[in-house]
């Protein structure tokens, strides 16, 4: 026999599952949703993603170096890339570059690495980075361009930004000649809906506006479907399981449906909630982050449903128009406790048997 | 989903599922196409004195003795033990520690026999063809004499397992022919080639246990074995007693508790044995050995062994005498290929890597696996756990492997037991699917070993505390007795002085002698009393001990019990 075989522990077979493979699957699954965002909101989305990835990888490598650990394996697992992409898909496509830098630094350095790095962070880094910006720079992080739907643009007398115009806006803050922020920036449909409802409008009146499509805001409402496509891909590749996304969406729809049935004039329909904001994106890509989510099956159902319900609650009565980030972070704190109380019945144990 | 039964096979027997498990490439066709070949007798046999769980056998031959095939060379010690037999005739050339099949490369006492090549048999005990008219105890005795142990891997003495005690009558005997580990095909070949013998063995065990029925579980990737076994059952006219059940191929369906779940829907209570729920599991190889012992008087001196993996030239099965070096098996398989990278004893999921093939075949060694680096790549350094939960998805014990991992890593032995570490059967599913390539099973083994060590330490500390308390009490008692004697003496002294004063002057010498005499007498009486008291105390202690013995005597989960109840016969 060949000299000096290595002695390792069983099992001895090939281990085909890999962290970097999982992370790359997530990147791949983001492609349709990203394409939809680029289609409706311009090149800024891609520029933000590229910037965020570069910042995240550099931040990760630097912290690993400072911690005296090999940087290359940490970068090669692509977890920083996934965090960066998720972050970039959450912020407006016109976000100044230095805000992307700040958000990524907060996500990678403080939320991920200072808690111990990969696998140890109790909070979802991308969402924590986004919430950090949302609280610190509320205007910049909620100023969106109108979706690139010709009718909408014409109504506002603007045109979509070219690649160079987007880049200039992100890097220098300079708008194309003849445009100003008030002209191009717009509130998100969720924001619009809130504001108008607060002013006493009814759903019927609000939906008269040409801003609205079949379910949510025109243009906006279809982005989620493309993310759903990516989510189904993740399910198919068994990167995620159905528990968290299904519970999330069920929680949101049940809450929204209940209140909509009570009063359809002051509560938008469940479909509006589903197709607005980050509901689908959050259900498949954010809440399913394994590190910060629940791990027991029953726990995942509770976790997902609670996020869905919280999203509705914050959207309806909270201070911010969208709520996925807050709901996820709140449930991140609760995840260990939920896990503790939802342990599965171990083989050979009776249900509810006290562990000895 | 665990409670959804489904129907499989032509007999429409209701089957159940266990949680998790893995569909693995079974690699069975590498080695199962040819019949098991008898391996030529090697020139030297190394026969370990412990090939079973329990007390090692004690050598009953001396260096220089001539032994014959089937002769007892090691006698069992105590109730849970098994004899070992000479696997061929020859001369005992040494009784010394040699490397034995063990994960740690352990050396253990072995009897070394230089074979004379004649293979002359010793006088064997008479066959018992009329086993149905024979008392169960006699048959168990024969099984014990024949050195039969569980051949599925756990190697628990078969006679002990076949005597589960009166309070738990065994209703159903389950025969494990699942052979769920990839690569291994020795049970497959055994069932194809010796189905009739296996069924004989099953029949004998049914008689011993006075059990109502037998279910033989075989994975559906062994259709020839299933057909052969069904054929043998009908040929023996035992259809009403024995049912051969085709079960879906899913690792680890051959785990004792998993197989029971699949066939009966019952779960063996944690930390307990199947007999608790009226079941008993034996491996097909064990059944074959029982038939040999009872119907032919032959002790367990040979078994089938699979040599497989792409690291050997010609994988196949061999009929091998116990004590044959693994190297001889590999040589008979055409030797190693140049890209052979790892040698494993057992299957790829639960087997252990060994450094050298200079180890003997034992009663429970089922497979010598030479893997190439493509089949068994180096998993590389472990990365951080990302809590993806795949491990929990595949765990057949429905544990939370990643929680166990966290706590095992932190050496938090209380927490790992909170998470039911001792329900882990070390099947390796979690480690195989872990994207971070964490050697999870290794962590669990470590935590189990540490827990056992701590339990032993606790018991030792408790023992020491009791001894210390007893010593303190004894010293105090002695001191009290000494004081009492002193007081007595003091009380006696003035009285004597007065008496002496009254007879002052009279025969001083005689008086001194008399006082000395009384003193000796009283001292003697004191000592007698002290001895009596000590005896009484000792008797009381013994009684108290006997009363508390039962709860106190229940040992910590020892290595043996652990393997028997946890590792089981997962194959």
Automatic annotation (TrEMBL), chain A:
Transmembrane segment boundaries: 46-63, 75-91, 127-145, 243-262, 268-288, 300-317
Keyword Disulfide bond listed: no
Assembly notes: The complex is composed of six subunits: RnfA, RnfB, RnfC, RnfD, RnfE and RnfG.
Biological process, per Gene Ontology: electron transport chain; transmembrane transport
Superkingdom of source: Bacteria
Major location category of this protein: membrane
EC number in record: 7.-.-.-
UniProt topology in membrane: Multi-pass membrane protein
Function (record text): Part of a membrane-bound complex that couples electron transfer with translocation of ions across the membrane.
Modified residues annotated as FMN phosphoryl threonine in this record: 188
Keyword field: Cell inner membrane, Cell membrane, Electron transport, Flavoprotein, FMN, Membrane, Phosphoprotein, Translocase, Transmembrane, Transmembrane helix, Transport
Annotated compartments: Cell inner membrane
UniProt key word Phosphoprotein: yes
Protein name: Ion-translocating oxidoreductase complex subunit D
InterPro entries assigned: NqrB/RnfD, RnfD_bac
Family to which this protein belongs: Belongs to the NqrB/RnfD family.
NCBIfam families per the UniProt record, alphabetical: PRK00816.1, rnfD
Names of required cofactors: FMN
GO cellular component: plasma membrane
UniProtKB/TrEMBL annotation, chain B:
Biased composition (Low complexity): 491-521
Role according to the record: Part of a membrane-bound complex that couples electron transfer with translocation of ions across the membrane.
Protein name: Ion-translocating oxidoreductase complex subunit C
Membrane topology qualifier: Peripheral membrane protein
Cofactor note: Binds 2 [4Fe-4S] clusters per subunit.
One GO cellular component term noted in the UniProt record for this chain: plasma membrane
UniProt biased composition (Basic and acidic residues): 524-543
Lineage: Bacteria, Pseudomonadati, Pseudomonadota, Gammaproteobacteria, Chromatiales
NCBIfam families (UniProt xref): PRK05035.1 (NF003454), rnfC (TIGR01945)
Species, as recorded: Thiohalocapsa marina
Primary localization class, coarse: membrane
Gene behind this protein: rsxC
């Amino acid at each position: 026999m060949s000299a000096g075989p290595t002695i390792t522990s069983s099992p001895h077979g090939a281990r085909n599952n890999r962290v970097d493979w999982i992370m790359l699957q997530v990147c791949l699954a983001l492609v349709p949703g990203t394409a939809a965002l680029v289609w409706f909101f311009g090149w800024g989305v891609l520029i933000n993603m590229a910037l965020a990835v570069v910042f995240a990888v550099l931040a990760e490598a630097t912290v690993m170096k400072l911690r005296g650990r090999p940087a290359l394996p940490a970068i090669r697992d692509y977890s920083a890339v996934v965090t960066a992409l998720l972050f970039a898909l959450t912020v407006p496509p016109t976000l100044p570059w230095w805000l992307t830098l700040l958000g990524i630094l907060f996500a990678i350095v403080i939320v991920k690495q200072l808690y111990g790095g990969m696998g140890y962070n109790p909070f979802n880094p991308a969402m924590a980075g986004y919430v950090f910006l949302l609280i610190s720079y509320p205007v910049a992080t909620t100023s969106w361009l109108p979706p690139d739907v010709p009718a909408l643009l014409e109504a506002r007398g603007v045109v979509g930004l070219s690649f160079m115009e987007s880049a200039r806006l992100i890097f220098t803050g300079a708008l194309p000649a003849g445009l100003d922020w008030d002209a191009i920036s717009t509130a998100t449909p969720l924001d619009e809906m809130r504001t108008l409802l607060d002013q006493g409008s009814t759903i019927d009146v609000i939906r008269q506006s040409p801003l609205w499509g079949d379910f949510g805001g025109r243009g906006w409402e279809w982005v989620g479907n493309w993310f759903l496509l990516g989510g189904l891909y993740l399910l198919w590749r068994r990167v995620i399981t159905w528990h968290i996304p299904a519970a999330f969406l069920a929680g949101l729809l049940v809450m929204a449906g209940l209140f909509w049935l009570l009063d359809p004039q002051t509560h938008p329909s469940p479909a509006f909630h589903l197709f607005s904001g980050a509901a689908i994106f959050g259900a498949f890509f954010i809440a399913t982050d394994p590190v910060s989510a629940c791990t027991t099956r029953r726990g995942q159902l509770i976790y997902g449903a609670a996020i869905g319900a919280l999203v509705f609650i914050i959207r309806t009565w909270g201070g911010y128009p969208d709520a996925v980030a807050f709901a996820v972070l709140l449930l991140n704190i609760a995840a260990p406790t939920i896990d503790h109380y939802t342990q599965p019945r171990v083989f050979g144990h009776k249900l509810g048997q006290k562990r000895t | 989903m665990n409670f959804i039964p489904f129907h499989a096979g032509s007999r429409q027997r209701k089957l159940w599922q266990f949680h998790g498990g893995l569909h693995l490439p079974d690699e069975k066709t590498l080695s199962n196409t040819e019949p098991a070949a008898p391996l030529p007798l090697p020139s030297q046999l190394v026969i370990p004195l412990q090939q079973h769980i329990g007390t090692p056998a004690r050598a009953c031959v001396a260096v220089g003795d001539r032994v014959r095939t089937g002769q007892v060379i090691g006698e069992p010690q105590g109730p849970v033990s098994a004899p070992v037999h000479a696997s061929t005739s020859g001369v005992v050339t040494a009784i010394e520690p040699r490397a034995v099949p063990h994960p740690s490369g352990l050396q253990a006492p072995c009897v070394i026999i230089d074979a004379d090549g004649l293979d002359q048999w010793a006088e064997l005990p008479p066959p018992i063809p009329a086993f149905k008219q024979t008392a169960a105890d006699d048959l168990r005795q024969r099984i014990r004499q024949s050195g039969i142990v569980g051949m599925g891997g756990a190697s628990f003495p078969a006679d002990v397992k076949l005597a589960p005690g009166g309070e738990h009558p065994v209703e159903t005997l389950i025969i494990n022919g699942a052979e769920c580990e990839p690569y291994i095909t020795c049970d497959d070949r055994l069932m194809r080639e010796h189905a009739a013998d296996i069924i004989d063995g099953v029949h004998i065990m049914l008689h011993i246990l006075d059990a109502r029925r037998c279910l033989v579980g075989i994975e559906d990737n062994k259709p020839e074995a299933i057909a052969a076994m069904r054929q043998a059952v009908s040929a023996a006219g035992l259809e009403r007693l024995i049912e051969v059940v085709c079960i879906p191929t899913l690792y680890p369906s051959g785990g004792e508790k998993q197989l029971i779940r699949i066939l009966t829907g019952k779960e063996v209570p944690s930390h307990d044995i199947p007999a608790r729920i009226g079941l008993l599991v034996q491996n097909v190889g064990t059944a074959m050995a029982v038939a040999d012992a009872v119907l032919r008087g032959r002790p367990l001196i040979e078994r089938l062994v699979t040599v497989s993996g792409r690291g050997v030239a010609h994988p196949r099965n061999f009929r091998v005498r116990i004590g044959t070096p693994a190297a001889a098996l590999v040589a008979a398989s055409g030797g190693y290929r140049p890209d052979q990278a790892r040698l494993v004893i057992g299957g790829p999921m639960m087997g252990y890597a060994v450094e050298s093939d200079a180890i003997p075949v034992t009663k429970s060694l089922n497979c010598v696996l030479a893997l190439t680096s493509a089949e068994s790549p180096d998993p590389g350094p472990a990365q951080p756990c990302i809590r993806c939960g795949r491990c929990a998805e595949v765990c057949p014990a429905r544990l939370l492997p990643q929680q166990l991992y966290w706590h095992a890593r932190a050496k938090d032995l209380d927490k790992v037991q909170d998470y039911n570490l001792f329900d882990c059967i070390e099947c390796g599913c979690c480690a195989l699917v872990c994207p971070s390539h964490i050697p999870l099973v290794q962590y669990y083994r470590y935590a189990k070993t540490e827990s056992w060590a701590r339990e032993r330490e606790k018991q030792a500390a408790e023992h020491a505390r009791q001894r210390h308390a007893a010593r303190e009490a004894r010293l105090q008692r002695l001191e009290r007795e000494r004081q009492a004697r002193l007081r007595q003496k003091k009380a006696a002294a003035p009285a004597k002085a007065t008496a002496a004063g009254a007879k002052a002057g009279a025969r001083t010498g005689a008086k001194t002698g008399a006082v000395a005499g009384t003193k000796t007498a009283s001292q003697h009486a004191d000592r007698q009393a002290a001895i009596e008291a000590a005896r009484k105390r000792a008797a009381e202690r013994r009684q108290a001990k006997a009363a508390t013995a039962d709860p106190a005597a229940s040992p910590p989960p020892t290595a043996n019990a652990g393997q028997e109840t946890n590792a089981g016969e997962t194959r």
